[in-house]
Hints:
Layout: H1 2-16, H2 21-29, H3 39-70
Amino acid sequence: PKEAEHRVHLVRLAQDCGFTLEETGLLLNGFSPTTPPSKRWQRFAAAKEAELDARIVRLRAMQELVRRVAA
């Protein structure tokens, strides 16, 4: 089913982005779509966004290094 494919894709993407199993569980089951995000969820999301931003900066730096070495 499409829902199962979506969940598997989300789990793989979360793993690739450095999410823990606990964090991935929160993404999948941590809140109801009809319930507004709680303060706890907002803090989790803000912290994770900062981690992802930092990882993107490191990945871009590595990408630039690879490009310079390959040139």
